[in-house]
Write a structure and sequence with these properties.
The chain is an alpha/beta fold and 465 residues long. It folds into two domains: 7-265 and 440-462, Aldolase class I (TIM Barrel, Alpha-Beta Barrel); 299-421, no CATH class. Helices cover 30% and strands 17% of the residues. It contains twelve helices and 18 strands. It has helices spanning 29-37, 68-94, 111-121, 139-144, 157-166, 204-217, 267-275, 299-309, 339-350, 369-380, 413-421, 454-462; strands at residues 7-9, 12-14, 17-19, 41-45, 99-105, 128-132, 149-154, 178-181, 188-190, 225-228, 249-253, 281-284, 292-296, 311-313, 324-328, 333-337, 355-358, 363-367. The strands form five sheets. The protein has an eight-stranded parallel sheet with strand order 3-11-10-8-7-6-5-4. A three-stranded antiparallel sheet has the order 9-13-12, with no helix packed on it. Helix 4 links the parallel strand 6 and strand 7 (149-154). The longest helix has 27 residues, at 68-94. It is globular. The termini are close together.
Length: 465
């Protein structure tokens, strides 16, 4: 394998090894600072980042506001305080080496306010901002205002063309790089478009080459591209290194840094990663963002799958095939379904799934009374963690709503990600992971449950393995 040569990233030559940012404090200042201390690029999460009390204990992010808007303001204050705290930790841990980036989701609630708050409060500590989950047009202007480089996350050349033409060309000097995230292999939320088949993965090489050729048209031939999603070891990407056709390439690792001593996830989560099998991570559409996402098949995800399977279309009056009556709810309200679906619904009700919850798509999903209670409570307790949420119908607009019914087929993403990060529960909470996570179990580096330090992992990556 070719030796890695430093790349100019965020104003400094560093190793082209990037720690991928994970949300809800899963990438924190400790892990990202350790990565930067090895001469690479560490990335902490700016999404609901942790902050600490005077004893160094994580402060629980509890909400006391009576309304969604009041809780939304609390969430923004938490996010800014946590982001500044993690930037400071990363800066101190890096000891002046490498680069420190912050990762944010453009579709998170109050993304712009949080960015301004953290970058203003942590001036000089953050060198770059990576941003995806949406089309972050304004990330360039915001970052340029603080002399910070920006790194949009895209999954196609077409997406970058739109970003550059509309906004980025005005702030080209602060474009530090472009993160190409493979929409079939990356963990977390994935950028699959309507024209792409989730069941038909495409090779990243021609897609990245198309991106590079477009960047050359824009005078960005030497601007690095970060290859993200599906990167396990560099030996498998040796033909990308120093490849004049692709230009400068850095490699972003999202999944492997989870399993390090510095990683803040629980020991139970780390053990589960060592046990995964191929196929245990899969693409799904349950996220309240509306995006595809990659998550581990566990009890939490299987419940979402079975919930959607207990679903039938209905109408409020007899129409066509929908002429069989079904009485639902405490008031025995009559709806109309097909005769076949009526039999299915009655079967679910007999099994204890007696609560029929309406969806925005004019369907009913059947759940237990306890599940219905939990769903409604989570919807009521919404704190506006997204710019628009399918689950709760919150939207960051004047009305505070999407104008659609809340969708019981989804879930409160902020609640479950906070829970899995700050507890040992890896069965009943959402566990994001990249599709290569099953490789922990077969990689000899992790034999006998070995968990490396970040230093040991980065040294291992430089050997090609």
């Amino acid at each position: 394998m070719r030796a890695l040569r430093p790349l100019l990233i965020s104003g400094r030559e560093v190793l082209p090894l990037v720690e991928g940012g994970k949300g809800i404090s899963v990438s924190n200042g400790e892990s990202s600072g350790a990565w930067a201390a090895m001469g690479g690029v560490g990335t902490f999460s700016g999404v609901n980042a942790d902050f600490y009390d005077e004893r160094g204990q994580v402060v629980p992010q509890l909400y006391h506001g009576a309304t969604r808007r009041e809780r939304h303001e609390e969430l923004i204050a938490f996010a800014i305080t946590g982001g500044i705290e993690q930037a400071r930790v990363a800066h101190e841990r890096a000891n002046g080496l490498g680069r420190i980036h912050m990762n944010v989701l453009w579709e998170m609630g109050a993304a712009e306010r949080i960015l301004h708050g953290v970058l203003n409060g942590a001036r000089g500590l953050v060198h770059g901002v990576t941003c995806g989950a949406g089309m972050p047009y304004r990330i360039a202007e915001i970052c340029a205002g603080y002399n910070v480089y920006y790194y949009p996350i895209v999954s196609s050349a077409r997406a970058f063309r739109a970003l550059w033409k509309r906004a980025y060309h005005k702030f080209g000097e602060w474009l530090g790089g472009v993160v190409y995230e493979d929409p079939w292999l990356a963990g977390g939320h994935n950028g699959l478009s309507n024209s792409e088949d989730p069941e038909r993965p495409e090779s990243p090489y021609p897609r990245v080459l198309e991106l590079r050729n477009l960047m050359r048209e824009f005078g960005l031939a030497e601007t690095p591209i970060f290859m993200a999603g599906g990167v396990w070891c560099l030996r498998e990407w040796s033909d990308w290194i120093d490849n004049p056709e692709l230009g400068p390439i850095a490699f972003q690792f999202g999944t492997r840094p989870l399993l390090t001593k510095e990683s803040p996830i629980s020991d139970a989560w780390k053990r589960r990663l060592l046990e995964l099998k191929e196929g245990d991570v899969f693409l799904n559409r349950f996220s309240p963002t509306g995006f595809y996402s990659s998550a581990v098949r566990n009890v939490f995800v299987r419940d979402l799958q079975s919930r959607s399977e207990r679903q039938v279309p209905f109408s409020v009056e007899a129409l066509g095939d929908h002429h069989a009556t079904l009485e639902i709810g405490a008031r025995r309200r009559r709806v109309y379904v097909t005769p076949h679906d009526r039999e299915r619904a009655l079967g679910w009700i007999a099994q204890g799934y007696t609560e029929a919850m309406r969806t925005p798509d004019s369907t009913l999903v059947f759940v237990t009374p306890q599940s219905a209670l939990d769903i409604r409570r989570d919807q009521v307790n919404c704190m506006g963690c997204l710019s628009a949420c399918m689950f709760s119908n919150w939207a960051q607009n004047e009305t505070g709503t999407t104008g659609k019914l809340p969708d019981p087929r989804s879930f409160c993403i902020q609640k479950t990600l906070q829970a899995i990060r700050h507890s040992d529960d890896v069965d009943f909470e959402l566990m994001f992971a990249g599709h290569n996570a099953y490789r922990f179990a077969g990689d000899p580096f992790y034999a006998n449950g070995f968990i490396p330090t970040v230093k040991e992992l980065v040294e291992r990556l430089q050997t090609g393995d």
